[in-house]
Specification:
With about 750 residues, this protein is an alpha+beta fold. The chain has 3 domains: about 130 residues, Jelly Rolls (Sandwich); about 90 residues, Immunoglobulins (Immunoglobulin-like, Sandwich); about 475 residues, Alpha/alpha barrel (Glycosyltransferase), CATH 1.50.10.10. Helices cover about 25% and strands about 20% of the residues. The protein is built from 14 helices and 29 strands. Strands 14, 16, 17, 20, 21 and 22 form a 6-stranded mixed sheet that branches. It has a 5-stranded antiparallel sheet with strand order 3-6-11-8-9. α5 runs antiparallel to α6 and α5 packs parallel to α7. Bound molecules: ligand 9MR. The site of ligand 9MR has 14 residues, from loops.
Length: about 750
């Protein structure tokens, strides 16, 4: 039962606004509106472009124009209201209409509750008469169809005269499932829904309240029991709020498809046991980058028909970028040709900070493969890309697509801040979902340079120079010049930060501590050049929180350990100590939690993109394996993949196409199948951002209230904070699956 007091409202007949708080008489009294008091201003509300609105003193007031052919030509609304089929919903709100309209010349306003997509199944659509006297209205109706994307709107198009409509105290109650409730994660037996390696570790988790071990059976595709054992009671799992058991069936080494794990009456999703399952995942996780390229037509011959599309952002109408992009108004007076690169994520911005990390991970995956004798990983023909028979390793070809773009973002010689790198190029305003890249009509702007972006180019340019020297000396030289120039510019401008709030039409990627980027760039530059001037800037420490686009400190250690013979012994020894200590901690996190996640945040919260935290932590564990060849580290790296592929609190594989219940509605403007069935889902091998306990989008706020951190996730295209796709998340999956594929 809701703890919220109920509202009993006096309706249209009353001239006064009277509300009484009483204890609700029935259970289905859940509040369905966010910020109905307007205490948070206009947050969660929108109004149509012809109806500008603002909030003052708890009232949202909108300037309604006269005219308009349809009643919905002027609207105020809230989206993503969860509706349940057959449930009754009751709206109350107080309204006035003033301006040219007086109490005697009343305005018509329709209160509408419906699903926001055709055929717009409607719970109510009620015409009300609003006057200059504050009046509280009550409207009820039953939702014919359920869905997460209900829309409450106030529609007033077609007015005889313009007027000001003010709303306050908006409440919509109803439904049988409380906010955040009613989620069914299916079987309590959680496995890697894709595959286990024949000779590798095989772990599962069981959600069960029992304090004693439980018998388990492994069944083959015909239902024959092939192995049995007992669970280990892991106990209460803080991140999921579940009581969990663990199962180890590593002893089973018979390849096959359609295996299931059974505990009591519950059965897992099916999975295979096979020799090298991660080769396919590595390929798909990498091919994502081709499908996501900007500035080139995506060819069906490589991407498949469903993912083929015209080139985006090559200056052809309606595109207004990226071949001659100006700075934001008031910025520089030059334009840059910044074609190419990868689109960052669900949006079509291109960000140097994040692009740097993603390119680095692809290049590092190549360099690892080169040094460890992983011929497939270091080879040509690894991926499905136009360059896969050009005699150059595909990981280099694909990363070059981004590195070239990163260099294009550098401020030209002779301009203020020459050598610095523009932080990002993004649309001036958010585009609709879906919008194919070639159909984006927004102006695009270069945002001011930042030290963080500049150091991302310094680091990846140096790495590029080192790796390309044997394939394309001219390109390698260009990378090195760009890197060295960027480094000098960063030293000259060491504290130029991107604004923390710059998130219209693109994300902020703000970072006000660049000591970690200085260290990472210095390590890469030193590894490539041996120039001792860089040495003293190598200072960062692998943080026990792993690494991310914002915190690159661990990338220093990973770079030093990639090329230990090039660095002073003391640096190598210190990097090794730190990486092993951090890896040990991540391994413990995996073993001690109910589900094998190396990520156990100190504050208990899962951040935006938590799946990349998991995969990046596993890269540190994998590096510990490369250093020691201790099996426990390889097993734990695979454990993180098990987590990502279904052995988790949600019974969810976060990788499209990999598992019975796999994410496929990640936020994307290209692959928006959820909104338009004619479009494909994201390509196989696309990793979702994953649980984010801060509930940073409206769908998450509506539907995940009270979630345990590891369950704060929805496979819904509008839940961008839990379910977007992004290059730095796929690069972490590509690195990790590459490690798994490239080691025995
Ligand atoms: O991955 C980013 C995450 O760490 C931040 O918390 C979040 C909010 O600033 O932004 C994420 O990055 C998004 C970027 O700003 C815009 N493109 C989509 C990215 C993934 O959601």
């Amino acid at each position: 039962m809701s703890k919220r007091p109920g509202w009993v409202a006096v309706g249209i007949a009353s001239a006064l606004s009277i509300t009484l708080n009483v204890v609700p008489a029935h259970a289905a009294d859940y509040q369905r509106i966010l910020n109905g008091s307007f205490a948070d201003g206009e947050t969660d509300w929108w109004s149509s472009g012809n109806t500008p609105s603002s909030v003052t003193d708890g009232q949202l007031c909108a300037q309604v124009p006269a005219g308009g052919t349809a009643v919905y030509s002027s609207m105020i609304g809230q989206n993503d209201v969860p509706l349940e089929a057959g449930q009754k919903y009751t709206l109350t709100f107080t309204a006035t209409a003033t301006g040219t309209t007086t109490a005697t010349t009343a305005a018509a306003v329709h209160a509408v509750l419906q699903l926001a997509a055709a055929p717009y199944p409607t719970a109510f659509n009620k015409a009300l008469t609003v006057t200059g006297t504050p009046t509280t209205f009550t409207v009820s109706g039953t939702a014919p169809v359920g869905g997460l994307h209900g829309q409450l709107s106030f529609q007033q198009g077609g007015a005889a005269q313009p007027f000001t409509l003010c709303l306050s105290g908006v409440s919509l109650t109803g439904g049988a499932i409380g906010p955040g409730g009613g989620r069914d994660f299916g079987s309590p037996v959680r496995v890697n829904q894709y595959a286990y390696e024949t000779d590798g570790p095989k772990q599962a988790s069981i959600v069960d309240p029992s304090d004693s071990p439980l018998p388990w059976s492994l069944l083959d595709a015909s239902g024959n029991v092939v192995s049995t054992g007992e669970t280990r009671v892991s106990g209460m799992d803080a991140e999921s709020g579940e009581h969990v058991h663990r199962v180890d069936f590593s002893a089973v080494r018979t390849p096959g498809t359609g295996y299931t794990l059974a505990v009591g009456a519950a059965t897992s999703y099916p999975f295979t046991i096979e020799d090298d399952p991660y080769a396919a995942l590595r390929k798909d996780a990498l091919d994502f980058f081709y499908d996501d390229r900007s500035g080139t037509a995506i060819d069906a011959a490589y991407a498949g028909t469903a993912y083929a599309r015209p080139a985006g952002h090559l200056g052809a109408a309606p595109n207004r970028g990226d071949t001659s992009v100006p700075c934001q108004p008031g910025g520089c007076d030059y334009t840059l040709d910044v074609r190419g690169g990868w689109y960052d994520a669900g949006d079509q911005g291109k960000y140097v900070v994040n692009g740097g990390l993603a390119a680095w991970q692809l290049m590092d995956s190549y360099e690892r493969a080169l040094h460890t004798g992983d011929r497939a990983g270091a080879g040509d023909g690894l991926m499905s890309i136009p360059e896969n028979h050009n005699g150059v390793p595909d990981l280099l070809d694909e990363s070059r697509w981004e590195t070239q773009f990163l260099m294009e973002m550098q401020v030209p010689v002779g301009q203020p801040l020459a050598g610095m790198v523009h932080h990002k190029v993004t649309d001036a305003a958010w585009t609709a979902i879906p919008t194919r890249p070639d159909q984006d009509a927004q102006p695009r702007y270069l945002h001011p340079p930042s030290t963080a972006a500049t150091l991302n180019l310094a680091a990846t340019g140096a790495q590029c120079a080192r790796l390309w020297s044997r394939y394309d000396r001219a390109f390698a030289a260009k990378c090195l010049t760009a890197a060295a120039t960027a480094w000098k510019a960063a030293l000259a401008h060491p504290a130029v930060y991107a604004p923390a709030v710059d998130d219209v039409g693109g994300g902020a990627y703000a970072d006000t501590d660049v000591s970690d980027e200085f260290s990472w760039a210095a390590a890469e530059l030193y590894a490539t050049t041996h120039d001792p001037r860089y040495l003293r800037y190598i200072t960062a420490h692998t943080s026990t929180a792993g690494f991310s686009w914002q915190d690159t400190s661990a990338l220093t250690d990973l770079t030093v350990l990639r090329l230990p013979s090039r660095f002073p012994l003391a640096l190598v020894a210190a990097a090794r100590r730190r990486v092993l200590a951090t890896a040990d901690r991540f391994v413990r996190n995996e073993q001690e939690q109910g589900f094998p996640n190396p990520n156990l945040p100190s504050d208990g919260g899962y951040v935006w993109g938590s799946n990349s935290v998991t995969a990046d932590d596993a890269q540190i564990i994998a590096t510990a394996y490369d250093l020691t060849h201790r099996r426990v580290y390889r097993d734990a790296s695979i454990g993180a993949l098990d987590y990502l592929l279904g052995q988790n609190a949600l019974n969810q594989s976060f990788v499209t196409g990999y598992g019975s219940r796999a994410s496929h509605n990640q936020q994307s403007r290209i692959w928006a199948n959820q909104l338009n069935p004619a479009l494909p889902t994201p390509p196989p091998g696309t990793m979702s951002g994953g649980p984010d306990s801060a509930l940073q989008d409206q769908v998450a706020q509506q539907d995940l209230a009270g979630c345990a951190p590891a369950t704060c996730y929805l496979d819904d295209i509008d839940s961008y904070s839990t379910n977007e796709l992004a290059i730095n998340w796929n690069s972490s999956l590509a690195w990790l699956s590459g490690f798994a594929a490239g080691t025995d």
